[in-house]
Amino acid sequence: MPGPFIASAACTAFGKRSETLVELLAECSRKALDGREADALFVGAQNPEELAGTGNLSTALSDALAMAPRPAVRVECASASGAAVLEQAARCVASGRYRTVLVAAGERMTHLPTGRVSAILAEVLSPLERALGLTMASLAALSTRAYMHRHGLTREELALVPVKSHGNALLNPIAHFRKAITVQDVLESRPVSDPLRVYDCSAVSDGAAAVVLSSERGEVRVAGIGHGTDALAVQHREDLCSLRATREAARQAFAEASCGPGEVDVVEAHDAFSILELIDLEDLGFFPAGGARRALVKGETQLGGALPVNVSGGLKARGHPVGASGLAQVVELFDQLTGNAGRRQVDGAAVGLAQSIGGFGSNNLVTVLRRVGA
Amino acid sequence: MPGPFIASAACTAFGKRSETLVELLAECSRKALDGREADALFVGAQNPEELAGTGNLSTALSDALAMAPRPAVRVECASASGAAVLEQAARCVASGRYRTVLVAAGERMTHLPTGRVSAILAEVLSPLERALGLTMASLAALSTRAYMHRHGLTREELALVPVKSHGNALLNPIAHFRKAITVQDVLESRPVSDPLRVYDCSAVSDGAAAVVLSSERGEVRVAGIGHGTDALAVQHREDLCSLRATREAARQAFAEASCGPGEVDVVEAHDAFSILELIDLEDLGFFPAGGARRALVKGETQLGGALPVNVSGGLKARGHPVGASGLAQVVELFDQLTGNAGRRQVDGAAVGLAQSIGGFGSNNLVTVLRRVGA
Fold it and tell me: CATH number for the domain including B305?
């Protein structure tokens, strides 16, 4: 893929917001555009109709930004919508159709009762498993038990994932939860689906992210994007401790970027549940099976470690407005690769990788960014 | 855009169907694939979550077709989703990323009470106008009155649009309504929003369409695609009798296809309401303002006329499962350009144009197909 480059990137503050979904998307879009003109608008959101009562979202945002008569389109891949919309926009620029495009992704969720949000989010699971009463959290609990059993992961070790994320979020001005927590806090928090506790689960959040892609040379290039799928029902998959969709997406993204895991300096991984961060890192090829546990315990994935993961605070502590997350990861990497990540800057970061999960691991994307000249 | 070509195309029968949305999409996808392998799946639907209770639709269809681990993505532009998904798929093939892709679009609506469907469909309108109680039909009624006033169109003349569509649908085995109607039938049908009657409004329907795009030379080429937007609220637009989004989409599509309206042999236009067919044809440049009325009255847009329009039966009589319609138009044109349209064949058709409307004219696409060698 020849380019495209990321000209600019911005996020709203994540958290409980009073603005509408369109207002949130417009806020970060204006920040990213900063007076630039875009040839087209690409919007990502998981379910703006049910979560925010807004249909025809791409037109609504185009209208708010006074972009008519330029094209506007929405892209959806469940909770990977923010990554999928970047992929579509990047391919359209690569095709030569557009020179500069605005990519925005967001979700508005906190105004709804938690039970209603859970029911809406569960629509992305297999009807087969929904009928059994399985939820996102109970599927994550199954994976957690399997991983603990196979690799000897303890409950205390697993708690290091949210402890790390919350620590990083303290350094991120846009993060939803800017509060340090301890292993003890995690273990004593409310049970959700045994062995998962509240602090193991990303929370409902509002927020949006925006990126301007351009065929004109910039500081950061979208070097490769991969996209994979798997059976909708977890019971039809080969393994509870690995996501085939991530492995396929990583294979494609590294091939397109002509690089491998060894060259990556900073990672944003989809940690909607604590266990996913470990599974993600193994599926991406950074560690062998069980190796992500050892790296976590040794502190290798902390800021300052050999491979900093979710220095933004991740889905857990930056917040997880579902459709926004995949693009917010890219905004974080852009800030890292341009040296604008402030107190959470990874020194000399030149190659960044974002991994986003749609549904419970059924539709995943991997995006590799590279600082130009690196 | 270098290609892509349409390798094959298929529709389910439209109408009241007992299958799920995923089953309908899988049915026409299998027919279109006919044993072919596709590198990726692109799905279009307006609102599968609220209309069909199905989230994560692209993965669900990928699963039904056993396409994992290949990429799958959903594209949405309200009622133009079927056209928008073809656009995204075509750009991805043009970018060189994929050689062969499956494009499918559909909607399942008839199982819901009509009032519920109307409420869901109205979510694509401006909140400003929804708050006033305006609906799709009442906005169409405003446009109808304005056109009648400006161009002297009579109620009887307008009825010729659905009379023509129903006549054409008699020749289309997949059409929802295969029943001839008269001007008198239209005038005596139930009022919906004065002056519109039931026969002026496309009906709720179930159905799906699928197309296989390929970079390998085939009989029919996607010669050009255009995409335009306009203000969401009709009260913010310049004209009740013309859609800026169509004019912009047509300009782009003709430019990309290096042709003009004069070369088009057969047209599928978005006739969700009778008046739209006349407005569409003028916005597409086939007739000057008011000229579509004269062409209609003279029979020029009938099968056998100078410019046959909606020979499939159109949204009115083939049926309008919202997300499916834009792609079903392309399936019809593929059949026409390959000489496989049976009793509704337009003799020697070499260039076809499809026009699809998202929302009430806010997000529109135009697709030009050309028979290779023509």
Answer: 3.40.47.10
